Amino acid sequence: MTKFILRRIVRGLTALFLFQSLLFALIYALPYDFSAFIIGGGPTLRQLIQRQLGLDQSFAEQYFGWLWDFLRLDLGESFLYWPTPVSTVIFNRLPRTLLLFLPAVVIAYLLGIWLGKVIAWHRGGVLEFGVTLVAIASYTSFAPWLAFLIVNIFGWHLGWLPYRRLVDHNIWFNAPVTVDWLLSHLVATAVLAGGAVLLVWRITHRHVRPGPARWALRLGTVALSSATAWAWWVQSGMGYLAQDVLSHLTLPLLTVVLLSFGETMMMMRTSMLETMSEDYVLMARAKGLPEKRIRDHHAARNAILPVITRLALNLPFVLVGSLVIELVFQWHAMGKVIFDAIEWQDIPVLMGILSVVGMLAVLAHVVLDILYVYLDPRLRYVERGA
Predict the structure, then answer these.
(1) Which of 350, 327, 329 is nearest to 338 (CA)?
(2) Which of 94, 111, 95, 129 is nearest to 259 (CA)?
(3) How many Cα atoms occupy the beta-carbon half-sphere of 352 within 13 Å?
(4) Residue 77, CA atoms < 13 Å, CB-side half-sphere
(5) Second label for 247, Cα 20 to 30 Å away, from 63, 135, 298, 306?
């Protein structure tokens, strides 16, 4: 098993090295650089800027310089916001992206897994037809059209929620904290509350029998965690600021969930239908086990593996956000940073963001390979015999 883990780690590092090399070569091949956007000053000023930013060096010098800095976890300095470090540019916008896209992905996957499991077990009914229709319609929708539709219904006509920008500047006038500070603390609060809920969910799953008592404990934990978090924000005197951000978050969050959950639901449904014909499911029915237990403890546990794989591989790309959604709702986050870096040829920012995403994607592949060997006895047998 140790040799298997070491082989996967070496493969992952090799893949990361090849990814970095290819990424740098593609960006270096662009026909112009940042100094081309300087208006005025003539060729002398442009040469000075190229020398200051290192753009006058050869491909090999720039490549090995970037690679050495990356190994030291130094992403360099932004051209567009010089001399601001790339890590500062990323971390200033990262809370905005995480606050929107991370909860949306989690909600979409949980909803998709649950609905896919239920409609696969009860095939041929009105529920399957209706849910499948909604899932396919939302998943195949053109993202800007769906975003504008939600804005038109809930923002313009009904006027229930705000739909522009991240905050209301009238509320934030003379606010005691910055928007980025509040966003980072909101993300931390959501992680802590979600961790408490997942812990209780896991404990009740193992030690409490299915029934009203289990659901009462789970729903009570959700309510208690939410109330505790909100009480802390109110007591801190910044509850009105958090409420303003959350109200602006609702519509873009709804849009991302609708765009994401359909694929997960259809994948879970297909995987469940394949699992339901397996021998161990038929054996569980022959033993007289309850249908709900067969569905949740026998069929769904194995059917969920491909869905978890897709989730783990998609999570690194949550960091880059979605430029389309950000433009519609004027939610300036990582998507806007990437677009500006491409437009202005801010190579350090572009390389930094894509390198972090590539590193997390490779890490997800390695972790999934190792987890699959632990979860699937057939893979353990193959690895031992290899």
Answers:
(1) 350
(2) 111
(3) 26
(4) 8
(5) 135
Two tokens at 98?
């995480």
Instruction: Return d(Cα 269, Cα 114) in angstroms, integer.
Output: 9
pTM: 0.76
What is the assigned CATH class of domain 93-176+238-333?
mainly alpha
Q: Which residue has the tokens 């880059």?
A: 320
- State the Cα–Cα distance between residues 221 and 201, nearest whole angstrom: 9
Q: Which residues pair with 85 in a beta bridge?
A: 77
Q: How far apart are CA 51 and CA 29, in angstroms?
A: 19
Question: How do residues 155-202 score in pLDDT, each as one tens digit?
Answer: 888 888 887 777 888 888 888 888 878 888 888 888 888 888 888 877
Give the model confidence (pLDDT) of 91-129 as tens digits.
888 888 887 888 888 888 888 888 888 888 777 777 778
Amino acid, single-letter form, for residue 348: P
User: From its phi and psi, is residue 249 left (phi > 0), alpha (psi between -120 and 50) or beta?
Assistant: alpha
Instruction: Look up residue 49 and give its two tokens.
Output: 């800027």
